[in-house]
Amino acid sequence: MQFINTLQAAYQPLASYLVGRFKIDEQKLQGIFSCFQPVKVSRNQILLNYNEVCRTYYFINTGCLRLFTVNKAGIETSRYFAFEGMFATALPSFIDQKPALEYLQAIEKSELLAISRKDFLQLVDTTTEFSHIYREILELGFVNAQKRIYGFQGFDALEKVKWVIESQPNFLLRVSNKMAASYLGISPSTLSRAKSRL
Amino acid sequence: MQFINTLQAAYQPLASYLVGRFKIDEQKLQGIFSCFQPVKVSRNQILLNYNEVCRTYYFINTGCLRLFTVNKAGIETSRYFAFEGMFATALPSFIDQKPALEYLQAIEKSELLAISRKDFLQLVDTTTEFSHIYREILELGFVNAQKRIYGFQGFDALEKVKWVIESQPNFLLRVSNKMAASYLGISPSTLSRAKSRL
DNA sequence: TGAAAACGTTGACATAAGTCAACACTTACG
DNA sequence: CGTAAGTGTTGACTTATGTCAACGTTTTCA
Do the chains contact at A95 and B143, CB–CB below 8 Å? Predict the structure, then answer.
């Protein structure tokens, strides 16, 4: 499937995502696209603030989004990075419609497709494909979170670095040391030292 | 709703769970019950071994189940404890039907209701209530995992203990120090010392 | 019921990781 | 294009937590 004009081109990555997973006809596809708005965001732009209620789901055409929080002591913890071809949002807030306890941020200049919560949930309830996508997103999110919990606990800094290289080979190439360290739960100095010991 | 004989009584907690969440008629309820087999298990019994493929979901009438793994160095990590009125399984393996990288264990003498994966997925696909339950389970599991990731990172032992007391008040009363420590990612000695400093 | 195993607590010691600061290097952008 | 801010690395020092062992208490189950 290919598109002629640039507006349609913005939906190319989402189209690939969908047809790669489901048998889905052109008309249904257009119906889905009509719910998604193209959005361009700049590097370091905050898409959702702490304490804000999350009402949008994003699909990433290009770039990278990060979910992170800052504790009382000012320490940043990153819990998730999403790249091209992935969905991302502050899911706990999106689900409950309670204030987010985290930030959603673009860490690179990014091109996104945004869908409102209302439209998203409507798609989930009216199209079997989207109901399956949401289930897949949740299952994958859950499985990843478990892997992370097991992958981190009882591991020293060097083992964590090996673990992330093995499970997400591009991660350290794409993300700054500082952010990677805040994901791994170690200080930037320790990450730096661990990498030199590989 | 109340049951006369003991077999039906085994479904009482599941009935409470369901009617507390949905308007659901007696006939549908019986259809759901017919997929669940009562099972009694003893303290410390392993319900699923490492490398075994998980084909069963459990609902807990009484008792407590634990999900944990053991790394190469012999260190135990517990990732989840489920109590009365909750569902539990080794979800990553249950989803993918790949060998589990964890154990599922009863840590108390427990009364469970077991449903096969086949029946579970069929219920999810054929009854809107169960489809919603599965979504809820996944959403809750995901949200809990996120809370745990944020709740642990950058926290010292004392803060972790305070966090678990606040977010799961009964946890430390119900679970041994050793298991609680393996959940919090600290040694039993450190947990003991942290508690004395509360 | 009673012996044996498991558990929780505490002390002394070892160590991995954090903190802080200095430095060179890269990136951002007015 | 050039300055200023940000980043990664490394060394010296500090500290929280793990390890190991000893002890008394509780639990288990034959």
Answer: yes
Q: Residue A52 domain-assigned?
A: yes
CATH number for the domain that contains residue A39: 2.60.120.10
Q: What is the pLDDT of residues B110-143, one digit of tens each?
A: 999 999 999 999 999 999 888 889 999 999 999 9
Range 165-194, chain A: CB under 7 Å to any strand D atom: 176-178, 188-189, 191-193
Cβ-proximal residues to B85 (8 Å cutoff; 6+ apart), any chain:
B13, B16, B17, B60
- Based on the structure, what is the number of domains in chain B? 1
Is residue B84 included in any domain, yes or no?
yes
Expressed as residue numbers, the domain containing B111 is: 6-153
Question: Å between B178 CA and C4 C1'?
Answer: 20
Q: Are the Cβ atoms of A146 and B148 closer than 8 angstroms?
A: no
Nearest to B29 by CA among B51, B48, B13: B13
Q: Which nucleotide is nearest to A188 (CA to C1')?
A: D8
> What is the pTM assigned to this prediction?
0.89
Residue A18 lies in a domain: yes
Q: Which residue of A has its CA nearest to B148?
A: A149
Residue A164 within a domain = no
Is the separation of the CB atoms in A104 and A65 below 8 Å? yes
Exposed, middle or buried by CB within 10 Å (0-12, 13-18, 19+), for A67?
Answer: buried
A2 touches strand D (CB under 7 A): no
